[in-house]
Amino acid sequence: MDFKIKYGKYGLITGASAGIGKEFAYILAEKGLDLILVAIREEKLKEISSELSARFKIECLTIKKDLTELNSYKEVFELTKKYDIGLLVNNAGFGYYGRFINQNEEKLGAMIKLNVFTFAMLTKVFAEYFVKKERGGMILVSSLAAFQPTAGMALYGATKGFELLLGEAFSEEIKGRNVDVTILCPGATVTEFQIAAEGVPHNGMDARKVAMCAVKNLGSKVISIPGVNNKIIGKLHRFLPRSVVRLATKMALSHYLRD
Ligand SMILES: NC(=O)c1ccc[n+]([C@@H]2O[C@H](COP(=O)([O-])OP(=O)(O)OC[C@H]3O[C@@H](n4cnc5c(N)ncnc54)[C@H](OP(=O)(O)O)[C@@H]3O)[C@@H](O)[C@H]2O)c1
């Protein structure tokens, strides 16, 4: 599929300085989309942008923005609306392991601001813009954690559940308006996630394969779960009692419940 023809000239990626978002930048640049990359670490964004423009002969702009700031979604929208944005990759997010009652309130608040507030508002303003144009694509990055309660990272799982439910519901509302939506629900993926989440390094899928799954499914699947094992886990919760599902995730994350 020619993304530029189908969706428009530019792709906007939040959280593009590392991990899955960075891989989205490479994949979409290979497809010839011009890009706007958003994150806090400007140096990293600039490095990626220079490499992508040189290698793929695309225009690649960067915006340094802390997306936990209340008005950041408006500022990003205002700064980018003069471009023909055709594809939003709403990816920026972070996790936080530990026992909910002992966690740092400031960090929990920042997670709600980023994973819930800015995620929802960016989705809203761009969906509205795409529906008006009757053209656009949206990749919303949630998680496999969205499918069950996650004792050991309770608030993170809840924010990811929010993202999945919001994505599924609003994509149904805009069906038939020529705006493709897929919600990416990765399992463990090798990125910088564990550092930000105060976890221990974990094995997981390759971030490029994870991003590629959403790019391939855009226009055909509302939920994108990369990897066979993850697909099984994503469906298993439907067939098990809720108490078993709660216990299983608690056991998997028991390491973070020792305090
Ligand atoms: N890795 C996994 O195992 C996994 C599994 C399921 C879902 N996910 C989801 O995948 C998405 C990407 O995570 P990742 O694994 O690629 O993690 P990552 O390597 O830590 O990348 C996170 C990206 O988000 C950006 N970001 C974080 N806080 C930000 C803020 N306040 N404002 C703007 N940008 C911010 C980071 O850039 P700066 O630090 O430069 O701001 C970085 O570019 C997240 O939504 C995460 O929940 C990850």
Q: Give the spatial strand order of the biggest sheet.
A: 3-2-1-4-5-6-9
How many separate domains? 1
Radius of gyration: 18 Å
Q: Which CATH class?
A: Alpha Beta
CATH level-four homologous superfamily name = NAD(P)-binding Rossmann-like Domain
Query: What ranges have pLDDT less than 50 throughout 5 or more consecutive residues?
Result: none
What separation lies between the terminal Cα atoms? 50 Å
The average pLDDT value, as a whole number, equals: 96
Query: Architecture, according to CATH?
Result: 3-Layer(aba) Sandwich
Supply the number of helical segments.
10
Write down the CATH topology: Rossmann fold
Detailed description of the structure:
The protein is an alpha/beta fold and 259 residues long. It has one domain (3-257): NAD(P)-binding Rossmann-like Domain (Rossmann fold). The chain contains 10 helices and 9 strands. The strands form 2 sheets. It has a 7-stranded parallel sheet, with helices on both faces. Strands 7-8 form a two-stranded parallel sheet. The structure holds NADP nicotinamide-adenine-dinucleotide phosphate. NADP nicotinamide-adenine-dinucleotide phosphate is lined by residues 15-21, 39-41, 44, 66-68, 91-95, 114, 141, 143, 186, 188-189, 191-193, 196, 204.
